[in-house]
């Protein structure tokens, strides 16, 4: 498969701060690649280097086989982007800003362009006639999104593109990006700390922590490393048989339900026993990226670490999930 | 109320350097005026001669004030007070808008009003801040005049007059902030009102009645509708009347009351006039970084050109008036020569050269601003937007510098046009009429240096662009325009580009300084353009 974006041992320092510390990233042609990490992990720095706005301290980066710093102008004809922190001109209207950006990219002002712009404005429920200073954060984000989506490109570099959008608009965004990838065969590098969004869209994921990739691969391959959560009503089920199984971890009873985790690739081995126990109200929750994420950021969730029993486990987990979204 | 106190301290802290530099500059200017006048027009006889010329020349009165005899103190008040009051006006309108509309526009006001401070405490803190600032300003002006050796009582009156005018414009600024939804518009309209007040008073003074000996002028009615005119009516040193100051203080009170009335009815963030809606689509010409640079700066470029045109008109009318009133006046000619350092034959030429130097400063400021705008684009993050598209850094920088160069030329063209029109209208037939164009061209090299140097700073040390741009201009003006007047060492004066601006005379113009500066500007500009591709883009 062709590689459209490749970085090798990429380093970037701001004075004593190492923003990137040997980042190896590879994005294949035609894929939507999720780039996951909390704020400050180096996502925006990576994207700025790929756009030629910042220069790598060492290591190499290439986009479409070219040097993003040296060949910036040539590359930008083929690359569309949404910056991480969108600001627009206070005295230009949203419509003017969108037109300007697309003209800068070399787009033509033909009927097809106008139709597409009109269509996107309607889809995103965006009023292009307000002055830039009058837009809310979400609406500024829409200016950048529409400007990026309105003219076709081969590669899209999207830096937390849905920040500030409401769930309805997020759904519109997800649909549009999927369409780009399926219909136009475009490659998308989607940086995010919103896991559900990446989970819905991405073919492959790279997880960045402190400036380096700590994990990556297809969603399926990553799921092997996670556990599926199973729970059912407590009733009068005898759990001793379950507790004896080696595939089962963190067995706990909470709020009248029995809960435990199973290695995701071994779920089928547990099911016969559940059948024989005649459990009621069975819930099987597939592993989420959330959990994957926690493995790399929640230092206590090492796979083999013994979990506290009973109420402790779910509480702690819920707590950490909250802390993560706030990060 | 403690919240008012907290907010007042926040305003004080935020403004500490800005307000300090305003107050100190105005105070130092007062002192400097006394020093300069003592030096140039040391004896009463020469001051009487200048006053005679001035009162016979309405155009001079526009830029000065109401004459009250040739004493050093009253002459100083005549020369400088209206200018001090003009600066006090700007200081106050900017201060008023900065703490009201700008805060609402940025959303910070909402943050504050959502606390126990409510809607009124921020307003009260701003008013308190303004009153204290104007009291300090009054003290600074009084001390400046006293430091120059003028009578203490009159100096205090002059200081109070400056502070009272400032207070009136504080009210005007606060009121303007209620009307407009953006700080830009509120600043624009209130600064325009300050200018209008200055010109109204100028018109009233110029059309006033002159005493038979030509030593005093009594203002006509237009001066009485201007806060700066009210301040003049104190006639510090000769009259020392304080009652006219009731007028500016009263105006400030009325404005404050209207603001309270409006604020008690409107939402936080709302304004009486609603901002215009924008266009659905960009105009066809808005493509490329040059068009963007123009779209972002068209308003200010038009403003600079209007300023140049007005300077030109004044230059022309002054020049012809002086020429016809007084063919040779040794002390004034000498003073002009100190300023521009050349041996011209015609008074008009000297005057054109001197006043065009001011227009040259305007043009240089316009050039500086073109580069600063680029830095603002970068700091705001919109530059990143543009540079993420197929726009090379050289083309981007080149566009802003190119537009800067064009606007510098435009400002001087409008200045020359204004001077030419007023000279032709006055029937002046001296060679100066044709020379205004050459004199306009002569100002370009220095102004272009002020385009090129900030551009290099922008490339190598982005964060310093804005302070360095204005500081370099300020130093250049002080050294080049006023340095000779106060007798600074020639080596220091030579550091300013403005010193080397060619002076057009009919005895042969030495253009070499201009060519040198043009060459230097070109080399510096090329350095900026060659090094910019190596520079990262960032907001820090």
TrEMBL record, chain A:
Residues 303-327 are annotated as: Disordered. InterPro entries: AAA+_ATPase, ABC_transporter-like_ATP-bd, ABC_transporter-like_CS, ABC_transporter_ATP-binding, P-loop_NTPase. It comes from the Bacteria. GO terms for cellular component: plasma membrane. SMART domains: AAA. It is a peripheral membrane protein. Its main location: membrane. It is found in: Cell membrane. CDD domains: ABC_DR_subfamily_A. GO terms for molecular function: ATP binding; ATP hydrolysis activity. This is ABC transporter. It comes from Sinomonas humi.
Automatic annotation (TrEMBL), chain B:
Keywords: Membrane, Transmembrane, Transmembrane helix. It comes from Sinomonas humi. Coiled coil: none annotated. This is Polyketide antibiotic transporter. The chain crosses the membrane at residues 20-38, 75-97, 118-145, 157-177, 184-203, 242-263, 301-322, 350-372, 400-421, 441-461, 468-488, 514-532.
